[in-house]
Specification:
The chain has 240 residues and is mostly helical. It folds into 2 domains: 104 residues, Orthogonal Bundle (Recoverin, domain 1); 111 residues, Recoverin, domain 1, CATH 1.10.238. The protein is 54% helix and 3% strand. It contains 15 helices and 4 strands. Strands 1-2 form a two-stranded antiparallel sheet. Strand 3 and strand 4 form a beta hairpin. Helix 12 crosses helix 15. It is elongated and about 65 Å long. It starts with a helix and ends with a helix. The structure holds 2-acetamido-2-deoxy-beta-D-glucopyranose (3 copies). InterPro entries: PBP/GOBP, PBP_GOBP_sf. This is Odorant-binding protein 83cd. One of its GO terms (molecular function) is odorant binding.
Amino acid sequence: MKLITVIVFSIDFLLLIDASPSGVQEGIVLHKCLAPFGGYTLENDQRLQRFKQWSDTYEEFPCFTNCYLNNIFNIYNETQGFNDENVIKRFGRSVYTACKEKLAQGNNSCEIAYNGFHCLINREDDPFFLIDNIEDISMEAKRAMKECLHKFNTDEWQYLGDYVRFPVQEPIPCYTRCFVYKMQLYNHRLRSWNITAMQRLLGVPAEHANIEKCLSLSKRRHNNMCAGIYKEMTCFSLSQ
Ligand SMILES: *[C@@H]1O[C@H](CO)[C@@H](O)[C@H](O)[C@H]1NC(C)=O
Ligand SMILES: *[C@@H]1O[C@H](CO)[C@@H](O)[C@H](O)[C@H]1NC(C)=O
Ligand SMILES: *[C@@H]1O[C@H](CO)[C@@H](O)[C@H](O)[C@H]1NC(C)=O
């Protein structure tokens, strides 16, 4: 799973594994596709790890991407090019739209594969695309999340994807409080959440979920408002 964790990063690499035809071992594919360059060596692995930083116009291992995609995912076929439907399934519509032109750009299949995949992989990390691709939340919530992101240093944007894992510490401290306040989901004075509005805008907590313990958290909260809001929001999101 080397390249998957490395190139394709962390967010939902499980999805990606699902997308590879069953039984295909990534290591074998890497050996095969890197054979013209000396195989899957430590040095080549290190170069591959910088795949995202490779130039837009020059593939460091010429024709590698064509070979790799052709063998491991269902998003591309050497003869037919990229499969729009599968690209959308895997990367989301906004990444697809942003890269649409690149998916067909090139003088041959090697160039097309590289142009397209390089674009997809780089776009995928873009936090604004990530927000656009969150399912089941309203446009209003997406807008609030994007506006809030602008209040934070761009260095912190890279941590947005970590929210999907609900870590104990908030990945971007105070970000949740920002969009919660912007959408007026929490009344600071009354210390009360507007559950109806949360369900409408964010789709959480689930209908009929038991949220007693989440509600009681705000009664006990004392000083750190940002951490408290994040913790309670996590609780609402995970409650069933
Ligand atoms: C790509 O498509 C062609 C034509 O439909 C097919 O023969 C070939 O097996 C496909 N290649 C892969 C790797 O799926
Ligand atoms: C096609 O090849 C030419 C000449 O090598 C190159 O300048 C051009 O960028 C290539 N086109 C694309 C879309 O990559
Ligand atoms: C909760 O939000 C809705 C709008 O979604 C609003 O109509 C309602 O008055 C709010 N309830 C409270 C208690 O603030």
